[in-house]
Amino acid sequence: MTRKTGQAFLAAIGLILGIIWMFPFYIVLINSFKTQRDIFINTMGLPSKWVIDNYITAAEKLNIATTFFNSLIITVASVAVICTFSSMAAYALERVKSKSSTVLFLVFATAMLIPFQTVMLPLVAEFGRVHMLNRIGLVFMYLGFGSPLAIFLYHGALKSIPRSLDEAAIIDGCSRFQAFWMIIFPSLKPTTVTVAILNIIWIWNDYLLPSLVINKKGMETLPIMIFYFFGQYTKQWHLAMAGLTMVIIPVIIFYFLAQKEIIKGITAGAVKQ
């Protein structure tokens, strides 16, 4: 097999995988412009009549302004605390070499293997006892579940940053805290973007944890409100598809804006120098 043939083969495989990956988005998008009847008659094809009212009705039923704000504030706050505390924890664990730091890092790494379903009921019960079943409590829970992977990524990225940068900053008069925030943390930008995008996708689309924690009207997130389109006896697919399209658009826009930094973050540390 020549080099050109190999490249053409890989391109064909990539194209097929891309079409398979995009197919669910195609189904959601085209069905968001159909009536309920058209969806059942022709699920795969283009709409016989493009219905824009689905989006207007879905936005009204979702109470889109309030729900969007709830999802936005929870996602931004959760990602901010995850990036802040995880980067500081990883810096301490990577720079301070001791048995304790090694054990702590292994504990964080092992925590990635614990399924959420095994701890969700005791966790919700404990937060309920201290009256934290609200948006603030939800942010604390996301910090706990998001920190292990974030610390793991930051810890790996910090190995590629020479300690001489810390020492030079301290010699110039910085404290350890200032050296981290002014010198080291800006160098971790690709990793921070990677951690942010992974957690944004997870938290923005999460249904299970908010459904257990948020139990007051007006505090629901977008995934919780979309679930109301799927009743016990009726399923409003046309409104659900329109709602899902509106929900995923912000994440897709953020991904395209940050894709260069994401690729840098994923490949950082892959090649040793």
Secondary-structure element order, as H and E? Answer: HHHHHHHHHHHHH
Strand content: under 5%
Please give the count of helices: 13
Q: How is the biggest beta sheet arranged?
A: none
The 3D shape can be described as globular
CATH superfamily of the domain at 62-233: MetI-like
- Summed over residues and divided by their number, the pLDDT gives a mean of 85
- CATH class descriptor name of the domain at 62-233: Mainly Alpha
Looking at the structure, the CATH topology of the domain at 62-233 is: MetI-like fold
The Rg value, from CA coordinates, equals 23 Å
Determine the N-to-C terminus distance: 33 Å
In CATH, the architecture of the domain at 62-233 is: Orthogonal Bundle
Organism: Biomaibacter acetigenes
Transmembrane segments: 7-29, 68-91, 103-124, 136-158, 179-204, 237-258
Pfam families: BPD_transp_1
Keywords: Cell membrane, Membrane, Transmembrane, Transmembrane helix, Transport
If you had to describe this structure to a student in words, what would you say it looks like?
Helix content is 75%, strand content 0%. With 273 residues, it is mainly alpha-helical. The protein has a domain at 62-233: MetI-like (MetI-like fold, Orthogonal Bundle), CATH 1.10.3720.10. The longest helix is centred in the first third of the chain and has 32 residues, at 64-95. The two termini are 33 Å apart. The model has no long low-confidence stretch (mean pLDDT 85). Keywords: Cell membrane, Membrane, Transmembrane, Transmembrane helix, Transport. It holds the Pfam family BPD_transp_1. It is a multi-pass membrane protein. This is ABC transporter permease subunit.
